């Protein structure tokens, strides 16, 4: 349907003449999610339901839902109780965090728009609102995607003659009043996306990123659920801001009976000034819900996989050279590593940091994207040729947004460095950030990347970003640039992808400091964390996976002593923890003996066999397992098979531990349990019965009765495959 009230925009639309009564409450649904929007009560859209698909979507029921959600007036309040709407402002009596704020040089702060146009189908709607007094026209887009995700975005047009300064713009997602527990993530380098929980009481819980990238401490998902919600059960709603610059998410509960999550970009002072006749759009803010976090995250995975640009071919098993050689580059060393890699079945060889001019350590060279002539007198040709001859793809590390002051680029173009004042911003890893919004800087970097991609057979870029953007201005006394920089980065990625078809790009930022669906709409995987410690990785991978599908998460088998933690780990533990993602190796394989390399090769063979299941399956984290044991798995899309890992993180309270369940399998099918890897029994233990006498069970029994886990020492893991019997 499409209706317009353009002619009426000057008048107050008390009666909504342009919308027939049955169209004043709209219903969008897809992928098991319904969203009901009341267009009538407040003259701006009010989302009155976001969650399970309606059983009855007749006009009477829709109207019933809308009417039943209207608040009463109460003593001591406004004559009309204000409520959360898509444009919640003081102008409408809303006293919670406004969804939009701005002004015209200190005046014209009041905003109170009215709906003038509605266009809707069963999955999506566009509602145009006008505030002629404020000189603003708003275009609200809402869409329910194939997986049942709710997407929202707003465009603001300045319809007046003077500049409009936009200070804040959030998209709000109402949550059920009984969702009284919050979950978000925080962290730091080597510990990204660590979960934290708190009560969702009256007031605001605010999380902001001011790093010019989401940051290692960013919350990848802000969720509100029923108390004690877990992965398998408990109604929960969450949001994610699909944006790679500064952003803000908040959870708010107000005394007038609204609870909601909201998110959007975080603007620096004066960062967004909309010229007369111009518009600005927010990034998409995406909401998901589920009975448990497994279902909530599956919606993200489903929709991300449904995009045409989602990587379709089997994820190539990758070797990254960083922890194998660091800056110790040279043909002999890397050629030996390539031989060892090919011999164990590696399919993609990625040359990390250290290959370009003057880059012997991390103090200099960033910006000079020419192959170092001293180390590589014949360019990278000998190495790329060797890697390709061995049947592997070649990938290259770059950090295009960065520059070392000690570089030819910085010396030639000091004005290309982002700064807000004469002195350079706080340094990090001895580097600064290039002003990609400067067309000359952009062109220079784009051309260098095109040249490299054209000269060499490079099918993969590992795109690093090792510095927060702080005090990031266009020059001394200049304008804030994080937003423009982020948009320029997106343009650059789009340009590279369109000029080099088939090129894959990995988002790395000191490990996992740039993990968001804005970047992942343009890149093909993330480097999940610089921590390769399998024990640390368990939580990191669990919570990153709330939003990111497993095949987009880089997971590498590490060296016997983990570089970032000093922990000694077995190859079996390391490989089991890396198995449920985009599998790779980050270790100097030339230092391993033949027998060890054979074990590496066996894990790679297994990872190749399981990767179709991993790339299309449903991720399951199991609740209620006793502390010390982690159980997770992936069930194939057709439920014909599944793979689960049981990881002993620490000793368990019970010894031997009680039975564990494997939910998510097809309830009516019978599965055979096959152990793919497990530690040898200690002489003190008797054999595991179901390893001696193979058992079969239905999916329902596995999900409700379960099996005794093998007795394991801390830091040991077992991998089990479930195969449906016919
Ligand atoms: C940080 C990344 O996370 C590492 O994997 C590696 O690429 C280094 N940068 C290289 O400088």
Largest sheet: 11 strands, antiparallel
By CATH, the topology of the largest domain is Beta-galactosidase, Chain A, domain 5
Q: What is the average of the pLDDT values?
A: 96
Which ions and ligands are bound to the chains?
A: (2R,3S,4R,5S)-2-(hydroxymethyl)piperidine-3,4,5-triol
CATH superfamily of the largest domain: alpha-galactosidase from lactobacil brevis
Number of domains: 3
Number of helices: 13
Strand content: 25-35%
Unreliable stretches covering 5 or more consecutive residues: 7-14
* Tally of strands: 37
Helix content: 10-25%
- Categorize the overall geometry: globular
- For the record, give the distance between the C-alpha atoms at the N and C termini, rounded to a whole number: 49 Å
CATH architectural type of the largest domain: Distorted Sandwich
Radius of gyration, rounded?
A: 27 Å
Going by helix content, strand content and strand pairing, the class is: alpha+beta
CATH first level of the largest domain: Mainly Beta
Labels describing this entry:
726 residues; alpha+beta; Beta-galactosidase, Chain A, domain 5; TIM Barrel; Immunoglobulin-like; eleven-stranded antiparallel sheet; eight-stranded parallel β-barrel; 29% strand; binds (2R,3S,4R,5S)-2-(hydroxymethyl)piperidine-3,4,5-triol
Outline:
The protein has 13 helices and 37 strands. The protein is of the alpha+beta class and 726 residues long.
Could you please describe the fold and organization of this structure?
Strands 1, 6, 7, 8, 9, 12, 13, 15, 16, 20 and 21 form an eleven-stranded antiparallel β-sheet that branches. The chain has an eight-stranded parallel β-barrel with strand order 22-23-24-27-28-29-30-31, surrounded by four helices. The protein folds into three domains: 10-305, alpha-galactosidase from lactobacil brevis (Beta-galactosidase, Chain A, domain 5), CATH 2.70.98; 318-598, Aldolase class I (TIM Barrel), CATH 3.20.20; 622-724, Immunoglobulin-like (Sandwich), CATH 2.60.40.1180. It is of the alpha+beta class and 726 residues long. Mean pLDDT is 96; it is low at 7-14. It has 13 helices and 37 strands. A hairpin with a 7-residue loop joins strand 3 and strand 4. Residues 322, 352-353, 362, 397, 464, 466, 508, 510-511, 527, 530 line the site of (2R,3S,4R,5S)-2-(hydroxymethyl)piperidine-3,4,5-triol (DGJ).
């Amino acid at each position: 349907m499409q209706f317009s009230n353009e002619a009426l925009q000057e008048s107050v639309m008390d009666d909504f003449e342009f919308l027939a009564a049955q169209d004043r409450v709209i219903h969008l649904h897809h992928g098991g999610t319904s969203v009901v929007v009341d267009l009538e009560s407040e003259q701006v859209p009010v989302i009155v339901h976001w969650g399970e698909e309606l059983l009855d979507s007749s006009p009477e029921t829709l109207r019933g839902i809308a009417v039943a959600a209207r608040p009463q007036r109460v003593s001591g309040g406004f004559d009309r109780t204000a409520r959360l709407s898509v444009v919640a402002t003081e102008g409408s009596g809303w006293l919670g965090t406004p969804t939009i704020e701005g002004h015209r040089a200190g005046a014209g702060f009041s905003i109170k728009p009215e709906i003038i146009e509605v266009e809707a189908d069963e999955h999506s709607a566009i509602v145009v609102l006008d505030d002629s007094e404020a000189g603003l026209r708003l275009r609200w887009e809402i869409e329910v995607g194939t997986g049942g995700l709710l997407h929202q975005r707003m465009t603001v047009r300045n319809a007046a003659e003077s500049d409009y300064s936009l200070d804040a713009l959030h998209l709000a997602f109402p949550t059920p009043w009984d969702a009284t527990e919050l979950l978000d993530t925080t962290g730091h380098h080597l510990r990204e996306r660590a979960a934290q929980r708190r009560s969702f009481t009256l007031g605001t819980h605010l999380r902001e990123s001011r790093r010019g990238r989401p940051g290692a401490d960013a919350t990848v998902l802000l969720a509100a659920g029923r108390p004690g919600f877990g992965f398998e059960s408990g109604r929960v709603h969450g949001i994610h801001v699909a944006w790679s610059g500064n952003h803000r998410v908040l959870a708010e509960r107000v005394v007038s009976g609204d609870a909601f999550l909201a998110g959007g970009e975080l603007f620096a002072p004066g960062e967004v000034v909309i010229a007369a006749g111009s518009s600005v759009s927010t990034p998409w803010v995406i909401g998901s819900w589920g009975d448990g976090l497994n279902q909530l995250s599956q919606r993200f995975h489903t929709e991300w996989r449904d995009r045409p640009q989602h990587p379709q071919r089997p994820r190539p098993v990758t070797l990254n050279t960083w922890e194998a050689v660091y800056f110790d580059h040279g043909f002999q060393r890397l050629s030996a590593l390539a031989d060892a890699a090919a011999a164990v079945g590696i399919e993609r060889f990625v040359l990390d940091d250290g290959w370009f001019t003057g880059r012997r350590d991390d103090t200099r060279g960033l910006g000079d994207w020419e192959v170092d002539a001293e180390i590589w007198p014949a360019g990278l040709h000998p190495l790329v040729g060797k890697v390709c001859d061995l049947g592997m793809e070649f990938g290259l590390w770059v950090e295009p947004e960065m520059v070392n002051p000690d570089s030819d680029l910085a010396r030639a173009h000091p004005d290309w460095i982002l700064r807000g004042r004469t002195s350079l911003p706080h340094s990090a890893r001895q580097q600064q950030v290039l002003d990609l919004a400067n067309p000359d800087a952009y062109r220079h970097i784009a051309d260098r990347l095109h040249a490299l991609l054209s000269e060499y057979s490079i099918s993969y870029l590992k795109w690093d970003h090792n510095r927060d953007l702080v005090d990031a201005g266009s020059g001394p006394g200049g304008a804030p640039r994080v937003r423009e920089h982020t948009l320029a980065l997106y343009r650059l990625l789009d340009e590279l992808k369109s000029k080099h078809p088939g090129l894959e790009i990995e988002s790395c930022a000191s490990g996992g400091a740039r993990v968001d669906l804005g970047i992942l709409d343009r890149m093909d995987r993330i480097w999940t964390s610089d921590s390769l410690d399998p024990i640390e990785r368990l939580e990191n991978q669990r919570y990153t996976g709330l939003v990111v599908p497993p095949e987009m998460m880089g997971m590498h088998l590490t060296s016997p002593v983990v570089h970032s933690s000093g922990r000694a780990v077995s190859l079996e533990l390391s490989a089991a923890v890396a198995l449920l993602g985009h599998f790779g190796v980050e270790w100097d394989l030339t230092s391993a003996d033949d027998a060890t390399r054979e074990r590496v090769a066996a894990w790679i063979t297994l990872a190749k066999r399981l990767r179709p299941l991993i790339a299309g399956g449903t991720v399951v984290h199991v609740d209620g397992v006793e502390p010390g044991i982690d159980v997770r798995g992936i069930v194939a899309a057709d439920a014909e098979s599944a793979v689960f890992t049981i990881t002993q993180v620490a000793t368990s309270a019970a010894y031997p531990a009680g039975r564990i369940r494997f939910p998510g399998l097809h309830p009516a099918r019978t599965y055979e349990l096959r152990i793919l890897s497990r530690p040898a029994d200690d002489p003190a233990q008797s054999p595991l019965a179901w390893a001696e006498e193979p058992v079969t069970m239905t999916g329902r029994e596995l999900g409700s009765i379960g099996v005794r886990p093998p007795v394991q020492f801390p830091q040991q893991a077992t991998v089990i495959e479930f195969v449906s019997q016919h």
